[in-house]
Amino acid sequence: MNYEISYVLPRNLVNAIDKFAIQTKSTRFEIFFIVWASVLAQVTGQSDFCIGVPVRQRNTPSLENTIGCYINMLCIRVREIPIPANLTIKSIHNMRCNIRQSLARQDIPLYKILELVKIERNERPPLFQTLFALQDNPHPYLKLKDVGSTFIRQPYLELPLELHAEIWPSPNGSLELSLSYQTKYISTQLAEQFGTLFVNAYRDQ
Questions:
Q1: Which entry of 62, 123, 159, 202 is 20 to 30 Å from 6 by CA?
Q2: Rounded to an integer, what distance in angstroms lies between the CA atom of residue 79 and that of residue 6?
Q3: Cα separation, 21 vs 29, whole angstroms
Q4: What pLDDT, on a 0 to 100 scale, did the predictor assign at position 142?
Q5: Where are the beta strands (DSSP E) in the chain?
Q6: What is the pLDDT at residue 187?
Q7: pLDDT of residue 2
Q8: ∠ at Cα 137 (133, 143), nearest 5°?
Q9: Strand ranges across the sheet with 71-79
Q10: How far apart are CA 132 and CA 143, in angstroms?
């Protein structure tokens, strides 16, 4: 069974995060990813793990207008990352370099990596069991004469991974952290711990 919980990052907090990203010469995605990885390390006690990141495969002009879904799952390895309270400019820089090195190799298909590492397969997804995505799709509007409409994001019917963390934009400039999880592996209490630590990591700075 799949559940979903969400948290709001208010506009003033988002502005502060963007300012911090500029100060550390990072992108918004990199800061969010680093904090998410740090939260995972704190809660699970693991110091060496991977996170899946969906990346669009339209990085050449010839593919920009091609119809179809061009997405690859990028596996980013996280090692020895401090907990959120202990993150420093140096640790952010190190992880940022790791992220950019991984992104530079995004054209390598995931199945090729699986062939190379030869991980013994079982019922759990290989390499990583959690996904992180920063969505930049504009908030959709449906304009109808004399009729109001409200956009409702539909939950996933199935989750290929045990824990999905996605950040979505809102029309008012705030962001929404959506955590989708398989209750077979992640309890609601554990999911709430992930979400609370993630949001509070920015408020505590």
A1: 123
A2: 27
A3: 9
A4: 81
A5: 2-9, 48-56, 71-79, 130-134, 163-169, 175-182
A6: 94
A7: 86
A8: 150
A9: 2-9, 175-182, 163-169, 130-134, 48-56, 71-79
A10: 32
Rounded Cα–Cα distance for residues 186 and 35 (Å): 19
Position 133, amino acid: A
The Cα–Cα gap between 15 and 17 comes to 5
For the whole model, what pTM was predicted? 0.87
Half-sphere exposure of 58 (CA within 13 A, CB side): 10
**Assigned token pair, 178:** 């959506």
* Residue whose structure tokens are 């919980």: 5
Check residue 148 and report its DSSP letter.
-
- Helix 188-203 and helix 28-44, axial crossing angle in degrees, nearest 10: 130
DSSP secondary structure letters along 12-39: HHHHHHHHHHHHTT--HHHHHHHHHHHH
